[in-house]
Amino acid sequence: MIRLALLLCAAYVSAYQPDGRFARRGFIKSGFAAASTFALSTPAPSRAFDGGVGGLGKTKPETGVVFRNADLSSDASSAAGTASDLTNELLAPDGTPAIVAFDAPWPVLKSSTGVESRDLQNAEAAFLQVAVAPKGAKAAELKKEFFFTTIFGSKGKYGAYGQPIDIKVKRVADYSDSREGYGLYTASFTTFTPGGRESERKIYITTAIVGNGVFMLITGSTAPRFRKQEASLRNIAESFSCVAAPKSSLRSS
């Protein structure tokens, strides 16, 4: 602001003519130029960084995660290679509370808009996402188009540098048949790096419906590492639990 004031003062002085008359048009022109210079040279305020998968990409991807009470959520990081039960109380889009948990073998990175457990040395990660459930949908019978617009949407974690391509989603029938109320899917797709290069990925998607929300645990890695870590990633996917929270007289935050 001080710099802008000095620029405007300079414009005011320069607007005077040699005979002492004040040139209003000259002042407006010079003042506008000074203000423009100030605006162009003033840095824009920074935004909180959440990033896409792996911590890269746009700020604050849209995961649909809303905490009922963030202060009561578990966010302790687990020791490397040791699964730790990560529990959070989240809200469905219609406000229905749900207790969501999964085994997190990597450090937990929690923000105001999401919960993620990420291997800081490799590409493996697991994170939560919530979206409005299609009318009449069941967790084990979600259509691929639902995932295209949620997990693989341009505003999601995988869309940091462009919407994913070559997306293939498949239901894991043996899991869905053995665990009522849950669905398990695999998905292969291609994302883009900051330099525009393609990166093939594969993930597990575990789903459950509470209220009008589909609660999802997404865990996976790059395609080559997924093949090596598939058993571990499957265990994480199968650890997912999502149930309606007990009714409480406490006000949600």
Task: Provide the fold topology.
Blueprint (H helix, E strand, L loop, with lengths): L1 H13 L9 H18 L42 E8 L5 E8 L3 E4 L2 E5 L6 E8 L11 H6 L15 E7 L1 H6 L3 E11 L5 E13 L2 E10 H16 L2 E4 L9
Antiparallel strand pairs: 1-2, 2-10, 3-4, 4-5, 5-9, 6-7, 7-8, 8-9
Helix pairs in contact: 1-2
Please characterize this protein's 3D structure.
This protein has 253 residues and is of the alpha+beta class. Helix content is 23%, strand content 31%. It contains 5 helices and 10 strands, in the order ααβββββαβαβββαβ. The strands form 2 sheets. A 7-stranded antiparallel β-sheet has the order 3-4-5-9-8-7-6. Strand 4 (114-118) and strand 5 (125-132) form a beta hairpin. Helix 1 (2-14) runs antiparallel to helix 2. Residues 1-51 and 76-81 have low confidence and may be disordered.
Spans of 5+ residues with little confidence (pLDDT < 50)?
1-51, 76-81
Describe the sheet with the most strands. 7 strands, antiparallel
- Form type: globular
Report the oligomer. Answer: single chain
How do the helices and strands follow one another from N- to C-terminus?
A: HHEEEEEHEHEEEHE
Percent helix, as a range, is 10-25%
Number of helices: 5
What's the gyration radius in Å? 25 Å
What percent of residues are in strands? 25-35%
Strand order of the largest sheet: 3-4-5-9-8-7-6
Secondary structure class reads alpha+beta
| Number of E-state strands | 10
Q: What is the overall pLDDT average?
A: 79
Distance between the termini: 38 Å
